[in-house]
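Troubleshooting log. The previous run stalled partway through. Resubmitting the same two chains, unchanged.
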Amino acid sequence: MAVEEIALQDLDPEAFIDEKVREIAAAVGDGTAVNALSGGVDSAVVTLLGHRALGERLRTYFIENGLMRKGEPEHIREVFAALGVPVEIVDARAEFFAALRGVTDPEEKRDKGITQVFYKDVFGKLVRDSGAKFLLQGTNYTDVEETVAGVKRQHNILAQLGIDTQAAYGYQVLEPILPLRKSGVRAVGKALGLPEEIYSRPPFPGPALAARVIGEVTPERVALVREATAIVEQELADSGAFQYLAILHEDRVTGVRAGRRDFGRQIEVRCWDSTDAVTAEPTELPFATLRRIADRITAEVPGVVSVTYNVATKPPSTIEAV
Amino acid sequence: MAVEEIALQDLDPEAFIDEKVREIAAAVGDGTAVNALSGGVDSAVVTLLGHRALGERLRTYFIENGLMRKGEPEHIREVFAALGVPVEIVDARAEFFAALRGVTDPEEKRDKGITQVFYKDVFGKLVRDSGAKFLLQGTNYTDVEETVAGVKRQHNILAQLGIDTQAAYGYQVLEPILPLRKSGVRAVGKALGLPEEIYSRPPFPGPALAARVIGEVTPERVALVREATAIVEQELADSGAFQYLAILHEDRVTGVRAGRRDFGRQIEVRCWDSTDAVTAEPTELPFATLRRIADRITAEVPGVVSVTYNVATKPPSTIEAV
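Second attempt completed without errors. Output:
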């Protein structure tokens, strides 16, 4: 791998910020750059690094792909407005759901459904229209490692796979946080002045809620997992865990409501202890918390009759299900 | 409902046994009867009641449907041989798997795949060949209630649904434990001299492991859930829980083994606290037990990368998944 990891204990956040701001400024010169802000800590840190380096010559987009958390686009725009960074919301829901129609294979979902639409159609068009020649990306060290190992294709990692974005998509990708793992990214985010709510946020996958729907990703199915995700994030916000999430299964299971059979849906809850996402253990949550989450999900998310909690480690599991 | 429930506190096991033995003897007269022993407490109690009433005029079959626990047919024959009750093992694996081929709908699985094959083809043929006009059945009160309510079709409950077994299948069904729930059946089993291993056994569904495979039931998929079931039953034998089981999901989830992606299987573990199976709570198992079960299942059951634990109640869940 061409990139050297910077371990948390070796990281000087202020020095790292200075170095990356200089590098971005030097690379872009007097040109312009764009970046996509997802609301996760990775892209949030990249947005602030880019803004420090380029000021108004960085255009930051929030792509509303229909796959984000509840109320996310507006919330993120407000948070960054308070930091002096303008964020443009781009409604691309139709494009994403059209590309995801009928797709059930996980890799195809990530590749065709997310990467292709994101880079080529939606974001590629934004970059071309903007005239910018540089794209800032929040790829981190764990993403690279897993993609190179063939575990999972991260949507933001084309160069590492030998894909020439200049030739393929018409722009060059800059990845300032490539040497960092999640803990390092959080430390840099804090030093950059991000609110704690953002820098300590549980990781959210690149393909967003599409990674948390087993089987076909439709607006209706995303709406279900979005509700379940909101409940899990509310109930586990103070858990101290590395990441927590809800997954909508495709399997149906027999249930009973009001004394009648109700052939229903299942939601799986995962909550992970980890420092770097490379290995992870399921968090030993209080049983009462798990029971409360299950009661809320079965009561509040339509058609759900069954809720499970993951008890396997990574490996052999992975953090997300898709 | 025509049958009156006998609650555990009102049950005198010895008096119940005397009454049912007299009833069976009176109904069968000098004829013969047959019954199918599955190894569960319900059919075990019925076998001993029938044996007391009829002696050698009861023929007891163990139908090897390919869907039972590991080593079950031989083990059950030995247990009953020690009680003086001969059990004939009938190999019907081919018939069951042929009927289950391509069937994924839960009701169809229970109905076509299990009830029809069991009553009409396999067991019906045994009864016809034996010349017996009576069939002893282990239907209990909860089975009746759930079938009448439309929650789930129990495979041993035709008369309650208005199906005339005399006309449809050529024999009459006797159901001596119909007034009892599981706790009552266990008390009667103990009084009959069943070994504790049998009378305190966790319930096992009529459709056997077919009820624990989501999607198509094939010999290969049953073999996987059988291994997982053996692990769960070993690890939870001392849990004091009402019932514990493993379910093989049809959904595939992303996993990682030896640093490479391994798109794998998921096993769900359920463990229930209940007195009557009508309502049930997930058991608060020690987290170390759940982790050990997950480690064993991912290590010992081929292709499994993910293990979950049910945390929803019944209702809205049910005890089994199919």
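Takeaways: The mean pLDDT of chain B is 89. Chain B touches chain A through 51 residues (CB under 8 Å).
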